[in-house]
Design brief:
This protein is an all-alpha fold. The chain contains 5 helices and no strands. It has a domain of about 70 residues. Helix 2 packs across helix 3.
Length: about 120
């Protein structure tokens, strides 16, 4: 299925998928947290200090049904349990982070995430 002067939408689609897979592989290759940070998160979440949904998420991690890296990558079936905690963190720290980014002359909000 070729349209226009040599324009092949299937080739473009395949290239886009390949690019997305490569970007995902790059993200997965660099852990977002250290093992120590994950252990501490597990401890604090399991204690209930981060709220009931984070405690539930920690229970799923403890049971081996998911892992913190899967949760952070968004591939865990329990990722939605993280939403309340993230919303609270944005409410608590969002303005400070925004101000720091605005003050950083090297920050480009239009740059693709892999360039940041």
């Amino acid at each position: 299925m070729t349209t226009g002067a040599g324009h092949d939408p299937w080739l473009e689609l395949r290239a886009t998928i390949a690019g997305a897979r490569a970007a995902l592989d790059r993200v997965r290759a660099v852990p977002t947290t250290t093992p120590e940070e994950r252990r501490e998160l597990q401890r604090v979440a399991r204690s209930g200090e981060l709220g009931p949904r984070m405690r539930e998420l920690a229970e799923h991690v403890e049971a081996g049904e998911t892992s913190w890296p899967e949760v952070f990558e968004g591939i865990s079936p329990y990722t939605d349990l993280l939403r309340d905690h993230l919303d609270a963190m944005v409410a608590l720290h969002g303005e400070s982070v925004r101000q720091q980014l605005e003050a950083d002359p090297t920050f480009d909000p239009t740059a693709p995430h892999e360039d940041v």
